Amino acid sequence: MYKIIVDSCGELTEEMIEDGHFVNVPLTLEIDGKEIVDDETFDQSEFLKAVETSASAPKSACPSPNAYMVEMDCEADHIYVVTLSAQLSGSYNSACLGKDLFEEDEEGKQIHVFDSKSASIGETLIALKIAECENAGMDFHKVVDTVEKYISEQHTFFVLETLETLRKAGRLSNIKAAIAGTLNIKPVMGSTDEGNIQQLGQARGMAKAIDKMAQCLVEATANCEDKILAISHCNCAARAMALKKKMESLANFKDIFIVDTRGVSSMYANDGGVIMVI
Length: 278
What we know:
The chain is of the alpha/beta class and about 280 residues long. It has helices spanning about 15-20, 45-55, 65-70, 90-105, 120-135, 140-150, 165-170, 175-185, 205-220, 235-250, 265-270; strands at about 1-5, 20-25, 30, 35, 60, 80-85, 110-115, 155-160, 185-190, 195-205, 230-235, 255-260, 275. It has 2 domains: about 1-25 and about 60-150, Dihydroxyacetone kinase, domain 1 (Rossmann fold, 3-Layer(aba) Sandwich); about 155-275, Hypothetical Protein Tm841, Chain: A,domain 3, CATH 3.30.1180.10.
């Protein structure tokens, strides 16, 4: 038996929830002193309104080691944990500590914590890859090796509708944010090999930025027909669907699926943001 634990930055599809092998461990968000648990009670609309009207940036807190330990205490012999990039959150370190503490009292289980070096649907795809390997009958160590290789080859891309959250968080100067807003400049962002964030380019207007992001993904991806493309969006389903159709016109993928962002991903992407991972 196996179990896959994903921190709540990774969105689970309805099929994954019904499958029974997957579970989320929630992070906690904070805006203007109010704490919001990123679980099934998360209200995206209410959260986005709070972010828009607040003068300060929202913050997130990673799950405690105990939160991971609670989910490790199960009947499964093989336990896999997938976390938000260690470059962006303490979730990975917390999961590792939880694993170490759990293993002090519990023997006989094989546990591995994966640093996704990504976020959102990057974590989702990694969780699906783990399940694919387990269902193919691979032993625990083969699963770990195969998935770590998959992570090293994964690419994350995103475009933001607004830079306000970055400005409020101090990651972008007021001048840069004002110029970008006035000129309608949208940055095209992506992940580094280490799991950090880098700017890949920019374009004037969301449509051109999405076109540029799509081209970046196709150029960075070999053998598209063997790979699943995942798209997540923050409150912009029509934009995500249009992006899916665009990607289908550019290359032949094994599959493409779309999810709406949960709390942590909504905080990063902000209203109107779109993320693609392959």
